[in-house]
Specification:
By secondary structure, the chain is α+β, with helices and mostly antiparallel strands. Among the domains are: about 200 residues, Immunoglobulin-like; about 150 residues, Immunoglobulin-like, CATH 2.60.40.1180. The chain has 18 helices and 50 strands. The strands form ten sheets. Strands 6, 7, 8, 9, 10, 11, 14, 16, 19 and 20 form a ten-stranded antiparallel sheet that branches. Strands 1, 2, 3, 4, 5, 15, 17, 18 and 21 form a nine-stranded antiparallel sheet that branches. The protein has an eight-stranded parallel sheet with strand order 33-32-31-30-26-23-22-34. The chain is globular. The protein starts with a helix and ends with a strand. The structure holds 2-acetamido-2-deoxy-beta-D-glucopyranose (NAG) (4 copies).
Amino acid sequence: MLLSCFAAALVFGQLSFPFAFDPSDFKTCPQVGFCRRGRALAKRATESSQWVSPYSVRPESVVLSPPNASLSAQVFSSLYPGIRFELQVDVLEHGIARVRLDEVNGMRRRYHQAASWALVAEPTLMAPGVVWRFEESGIRALYDDVELEISYAPLTVKLIRAGREELVLNGRGLLHLEHFRTKTAAPSTALSEYQAVLHGNTESNGWFEGGEADGYWEETFKAWTDSKPKGPESFFIDIDFPHHSHVYGIPQHATSLSLRETTGGNQYFSEPFRLYNNDIGGYDADSPMSLYGSIPLMHGHSTESTVGVFNLVASETWVDIFHPVLNKSTATHWISESGIMDIFLLPGPTPDLVFTQYASLTGTAPLPAYFALGYHQSRWNYISSQDVRDVSRRFDAENMPMDVVWLDIQYSQGQKYFIWDNQSFPDPVEMADELAAAGRKVVAIIDPHLKTSNDYPIFSEAQDKGFLVKDAEGEIFVGQCWPGSSAWLDFFNPQCQNWWRGIFSLNSTADGWRWAESTDNTFIWNDMNEPSVFNGPELTMPKDSVHYGGWEHRDVHNIYGMLFHKATASALVHRTGTMKRPFVLSRSFYAGSQRFGAIWTGDNLGTWEHMAAGIRMILSDGIAGMTFSGSDVGGFFGNPDPEMLVRWYQVGAFSPFFRAHAHIDTKRREPYLSAEPYRSMLRDILKLRYSLLPVWYNAFREASVSGIPVLRPQYVVFPKDSHGFEIDDQFYIGGSGLLVKPVTLPHVESAEVYLADDQVYYDYFDHQVHQGAMGGRYVTVSAPLAKVPLLYRGGSIVPTRLRPRLSSSLMKKDPFTLTVALDKTGSTASGELYLDDGETYTFEQGELVWRKFIAYPSKDGQASLIVQNHNLASHTSARDIVGGAKFQFYDGKNAYAREIDSVYVEQIIILGLKEEPKRDLEIDYRGGSYGMNNVLSSSLTIKNLGVRVVDDWQILVQW
Ligand SMILES: *[C@@H]1O[C@H](CO)[C@@H](O)[C@H](O)[C@H]1NC(C)=O
Ligand SMILES: *[C@@H]1O[C@H](CO)[C@@H](O)[C@H](O)[C@H]1NC(C)=O
Ligand SMILES: *[C@@H]1O[C@H](CO)[C@@H](O)[C@H](O)[C@H]1NC(C)=O
Ligand SMILES: *[C@@H]1O[C@H](CO)[C@@H](O)[C@H](O)[C@H]1NC(C)=O
């Protein structure tokens, strides 16, 4: 079985797949007609001193509509006076400006539905509206601390704050929406007329569009021909940040977090950054090539402000970046194949506000099921239900925590997903139930390609119902993937999404085929959803394939994977009578995918370089909302040596999504297989992850409300410290105050960690003190192989559970330890703890516990400190507690709080007391017994306090 599937991959795939990546399988900008045209237009603009955008607004057409937050106007291009465009500008809640431009009454409609998939809802206009100021040259909207300036001729849109241009659209005149035309239309006039045109000859458009119809009607790449029935319809726009030295975002790319130049004087890459979801196994660790997901969101950042731009386009897009003035300004040029212009300007002015503004549009990552934050053990493949049971037992035997065993494609019969290979998996329900009894879950892979076999009920039903993507001729599109000949589900059809839910339903009453051999402890992995098509151009679907609604694949390519993820997540939520939080891992993603689950960085290599690249990629994913992200621990390809494996587990343990996974050709490398001393190191790392689960859950709670990522890079936490703007190898976990710098090099005994502020930091493990400095300084933190550089920032109180068990669900009633890392004054700190059942949605009704811990000096005594636990939930609005909150009044005695009322804070560790406390401590709670243990001179441990998590209390420490 194993061998035959393996052989199938070789036969049906391009021969190299998936063992090595061949760059020539993927296009470069010069191989793409619209990218050539976009770059050529920019070049002509740069070379001309008289360049002026042909697009302008008819002032007499400007209309404001109630409630005074919307403007519409007619726009025309001097190139084509007969073609009409409409501009729509909306000022939205949070001060976001939405700028849309579309061709009206054209031969066809441009694709305009990306917003309906990406946005969480129709955006709300700013109430009660804004003040518009009409001027001769344009119109200006004034609101909050910014103004939006729309100039008529040429059309430009600027976001201005305190007289400073923060964002400029079409400032360099590169805006172009190629209108629909017929193939017989007169070709553009030649470039030789270029100068004449600039002096008034508007008959000719060659100066702007170029002299030839370059790739307008048909394009070939290797053996593939794209029929391009709609002709040219590209959309180009320059988006500049005149006062921002750094830009971040537009994942997914394996490169630095701070995006480097693709053109201009300090060009680092010669190709633009590309956004076109592709299956590139074993990708380059430093490249602007597109990868599995695409999110067209970018941050512009400087010490003065942060702003964001969200260019809501779903077709293939290339982004050029350069700095007109190094360390001062950034210019970008976005080149897209199709779609309307629909751009959101996010005013910031802080990184946190930009996150919240973006989340108001596309949603946040919801609270995951608690188990999903545990450790996931995967490999291609666990080959039988016996194998799965063995893996689980060996984790137990080695006292290693683990929450989930994963099943790759070989669980299914001939890659007919849902259909168990009954030779190897004769008892899948019993297998899942046994894992569930140990507090563990199963994740099984379900891909969007269906074997075109009439004995496969999923395919037959999808075919009968018309739920499959069509080819350019209107037949079902058939390509090659894991099962051989395959067809692809079309989730753009809402009926297909409903039908998909039925398949997962665990109710026997559902119509149609159901996945009966499943359980509510079985979760899903959606892979190959770029979509990956082994015999397609660039290993994906031909662009002239057709989706529901008649839209070509070219228009929706980057959305496809998200809709599969969405349908599966929704199916899991509703599969039983009680709504449960889903867990679905997707490889492909788009803006808004954060609402549906986790992603990972795809098929990486087991190299040090890829280990480091994974960290940068996770940080970049988080910038664009996709915060539940991780990379394959150990590397998908290759056999890491023991040292690399230990370091990679440290990277994984500090990723939001923590999964080990490996290619079928690799040697088995489950952590229990390592020899000592590595095995113990791996066990300790797993235990460390589990003891910090409260910290991760806190961070996810906050992300679910604010959109601020779980892993926060340096510029996000210290936006005014320019020395941190290019740091992308260390990060902070939520608002916990924990700072991590995983080691990603061999033979290292210490790490240089950057501390941005005049604050004291404490080593997590040995409590050694490191002093930061205003303006930043590097400190040396010891990092022998068993130790990951992990620091508490002074001023933090961090809750942990120090009795790691074999799975996260077994820890639900375990006591907490609070580590009070006092700030540099030696007297204050704060932190929080969020808890709920980790499984259902009852938290939306207020069944949760949210506590605030603070430490502060008591008023009377000098040598004293109060540590206090109070209810944070009762002081806050429901909306601020959790994303999706629906309750009005918080009841501190809710069912969940009662369920955990026996959970204690078993010890408090205080770091950084200025003087050693006397042995006699005063505890003004109920006088429980205590012990004292001065590990280092600055640390005081108070045990056996007998205080409960759900109660308000305070402890007076006096000396
Ligand atoms: C709408 O804007 C116009 C122009 O700024 C202003 O005169 C008018 O009072 C505004 N109306 C409301 C309801 O704010
Ligand atoms: C620009 O910034 C880089 C890195 O942040 C620094 O090395 C360089 O000296 C700066 N250059 C100028 C001209 O300020
Ligand atoms: C196993 O699957 C095959 C192929 O679908 C089927 O013919 C056979 O009846 C199944 N065996 C059992 C024991 O269910
Ligand atoms: C499943 O069945 C339960 C009880 O039989 C019922 O309450 C629930 O609504 C059903 N759910 C679905 C999705 O049909």
